[in-house]
Amino acid sequence: MSRSLPELGIGMVGFGFIGKVHAHGFRNLDLFYDPPPCRARLVGVCTSRDETADVAAEKGGFEFGTSRFEDLLDRDDIDVIDVATPNDLHREQVIAALEAGKHVYCDKPLTNDLEDARAIVRVARAHPGQLHGMAFHCRFIPATMRARQLIQEGFIGEVYHFRAAYLHAGYADPTRPMSWRLAPGGGCLADLGSHVIDLMRYLLGDYETVRGTLQTWITERPSADDPSKMLPVEVDDYACLQARMSAGALGFIEASRFATGTQDDMSFEIYGRKGALRWSMMDPNFLEAYDAEVPGGELGGMQGFTRIATVQKYPEPSALPSPKLPVGWMRFHMHSIFDFLTAVTRGEPGTATLFDGARSEAVMEAVRRSADEGTWTEVQEV
Known about the structure:
By secondary structure, the protein is α/β, with parallel strands linked by helices. It has helices at residues 17-27, 29-32, 50-60, 69-73, 90-99, 114-126, 142-152, 188-204, 329-346, 354-373, and strands at 7-13, 39-46, 64-66, 80-83, 103-106, 132-134, 159-167, 207-215, 220-222, 230-232, 238-245, 250-256, 265-272, 275-280, 286-291, 305-309, 377-378.
């Protein structure tokens, strides 16, 4: 790797599942891109206890571990703070990092509510020298990148309506114990809905109004510390919304953690005047496109959906794996991190920023209000 590459020191707060995913991305950047935008140096990791911090440092390849977030902020050799903690900690940690002069990469959702998101936006706007990114990895799948390209080129023309969903099945077991993902701010709308809401905004533009429904089927769960003690569940197991987009399209979005038999099943169908697009995470290597201007003729002619082999065809400087090989979930996160670090080294906003996280939070806030009031609700500005 070229010695002329800039170096960016990474400090990570939180080292659960998503922290490990992000660490994998930072550690392997120079293998997957030739050249990478920078050399990412894993300097420090912060967890809630010293003993877990030491383990995180060893497993993640960080130079040191700590239980004090300030130890990351005080280091001059840490340029980027990766916020990989539970949702309710994001506001305080993102703001502290920005005010300490650090660039920020934050896992989704940005915050628990719109008020917290707006607080982050105010600080981010007051510190324009600090670049920031959101881990909206679904923007960085070759198939979704190609879908956006086709839409912007006018392939499907005016969009009439769409359907999208993000379905899991992992919470249907009533014996699954309470966790932060079942605490306030951690429901299905925030966990899965934030991703699919952002992806459809990325593809089709801003939301204007929504009408939402939230449902909780299991209203109490055993404590993780004491299985004999039951704790109330105050968040949704399922969320759905009708949406009217600013450009006029109508849509329906579902998010469920009770979709029996599913895995990591995100999908969308978009129908326009000139064509249509559809895609599924369970078949991620192919985007399906329908061109309504292809003549039909006897026995159907050549009309029908075309499977576009997007596989792993990331643009240069992507170097590994081969573009013809099947794509995978970890690769989406890798390209999200590449996009963010490229933005930091260039000194310009990347594809997904904290402002995008705040706009998704505004949609989710409108869904919650609509579910309470039973009416169409306007999506507020951030």
